[in-house]
Amino acid sequence: MVHHFFRGKDELFAASVELPADPAEVLAGVETLDPAVRAQAIVRAVLRLWEGPAQHGMVAFVRGTIGSKAKTALMREMVNRTILSKIMAGLPGSSEEVRVRGNLVATQVVGLMLVRYVIRLEPLASADPDDVVRWVAPNIQRYLTGDLDTPT
Hints:
Elements: H1 2-5, H2 9-17, H3 23-26, H4 38-51, H5 55-66, H6 69-88, H7 95-118, H8 129-145
Helix pairs in contact: 2-6, 4-8, 6-7, 7-8
């Protein structure tokens, strides 16, 4: 029945929790970028989404998801299949290494969203988006393609 009414589980999830944005649209084209330069595009895509009209819906969505075990489980599945699969597409390494790298990227992106838009911790909350990209993208890039054994 899911496939009769929806294109797949991701669309069902988005409808059931009123996801304020389509991750595929937000991250369109990221998977085609060279992994060596992908981090800035990821941070810019996140900032575009959160700086836009969907911000209030995104904050409400995050707050509601964190408080619900069922929504958190659905979100985890959607993040793995829809968001991380795009971000991590084409990265070299074993599937386990790519999964670890994806999880590390997620720590930075989720942390950025929580601190900047939900908790609104200053000075990050009001920082210029270009500064945020400059500060956060190098860490994400390290998680994407850098040496995970040696801190930089």
